[in-house]
Amino acid sequence: MGWVFLIPVHNALTIDVEDWYHVCCGDAEPVVPAGKRRVRQNIERILAMLAEFGVKATFFMLGSVAEEEPLLVPMIVAAGHEVSSHGYSHTLVPLLGPKKFRDEIRRTAEIIGTQAGCKPVGFRAPQWSLGPETPWALDILHEEGCLYDSSYNPLPFIGDRRGARTPFSIATSAGSIFELPPMVTPSPICNLPTGGGWGFRFFSLSMISRTVKKLNDAGMPAVLYLHPREMEAFGPRLSLSPLKSFAAYGTRSDAEGRLRHLLQNFRFRTMRQLVATWQSA
């Protein structure tokens, strides 16, 4: 099932709140001293930019980061933004399995609930690792109180390349859950990852803007995503193979300039607000 928004259409800016070393490449994550963490300073930069444009966003928070930086969630909530779940450990969903996945969802919800005053109602899996091959995960999300997910990325290799490019509803064993996939740009070869990550910095700003406008003209929202590390062009990076390094960092120019352009030229609201629009339709 899909929905068409009445004009004017609002889009969603989402931030995956993780630190610079949270990169899914099949390798063990390094143990990083507290002095080497950089997530807070980059979140502060993002919050300042959002305040400048009067935009509210959704922050998908890692439970481990919320534990290590207990001032982050209250800071985000105080600025009027939504905090949702990114899981606890940044482990891919299939590697967790049903029991550990539920444990992570509950643990992160408890941390965010304590810090924010309310539990999260949305989820995004690390590296888009939730999809048709893990149907049990959506059952668990629904049972744990989630209204929506944003993990079905319609890309080859890391998602479902034939998947829907616009929001839809998925039936679970206990009811339905809203799915809000990230923005991609169709091409003759495959869908291109223009909605965030390395693709957001690699592909032209005109291509990204045209894709947002085309979705909005069709009455649909664009879901964009950003990692805090993308706010600094010369921040630290892990030592990876050339292919993994490109997948993780792309050209590694910072995303701030083009993000400013989009915030100035398009409307945005939180994911929960978008879902509330569908629920009331």
From TrEMBL:
Gene3D superfamilies given in the database record: Glycoside hydrolase/deacetylase
Pfam family for this entry, one: Polysacc_deac_1
Example GO biological process: carbohydrate metabolic process
GO-annotated molecular function: hydrolase activity, acting on carbon-nitrogen (but not peptide) bonds
Residues covered by the NodB homology domain: 26-281
Record protein name field: Polysaccharide deacetylase
